[in-house]
Amino acid sequence: MIKEIKTHNKYSLKYKQSNHILRYGRFGIKATSFGRLSETQFNTLRWSILKKLKLLTNKKKNFRFWTLVVMNLTLTKFNLESRMGKGKGSIYTKALYIRPGMVIFEFDNITEQQMRNLLDYISKKISLKIILVKKL
């Protein structure tokens, strides 16, 4: 089943990836805009989410947290003094493209109020537009 999103032009975006629905948790954070996160940005975001979750749940470790994206891009870099030609350059980090509709994180065993506080916290840290999704 392929869902469509309306865009400003005549071509419609389709959910080609399978990570547009919640699989594991009760709550999820879904991207609503295009973007790119490097490996260091993503790891820092994950670390800060875990830290904030421990504060919200009073240091109880009964919450569950999943990351559902994989690094699908390698970024290369050349020296500034190098001349044109002679290859592509060495890989210096990995990154991931984020499309609208991708569920980036999933959470379980936390309340909806804690999840809304976490969403406000994450939206200030990340350069993407994100929304909260939940299972019924």
From TrEMBL:
Similarity comment: family membership: Belongs to the universal ribosomal protein uL16 family.
Source species: Gracilariopsis tenuifrons
SUPFAM superfamilies cross-referenced by the UniProt entry: Ribosomal protein L16p/L10e (SSF54686)
Name of the protein described by the UniProt record: Ribosomal protein L16
GO biological process, one term: mitochondrial translation
Entry keyword set: Mitochondrion, Ribonucleoprotein, Ribosomal protein
GO molecular function: rRNA binding; structural constituent of ribosome
Keyword Mitochondrion: yes
PROSITE patterns xrefs: RIBOSOMAL_L16_2
Any Pfam family: Ribosomal_L16
Lineage, broadest ranks: Eukaryota, Rhodophyta, Florideophyceae, Rhodymeniophycidae, Gracilariales
GO cellular component, one term: mitochondrial large ribosomal subunit
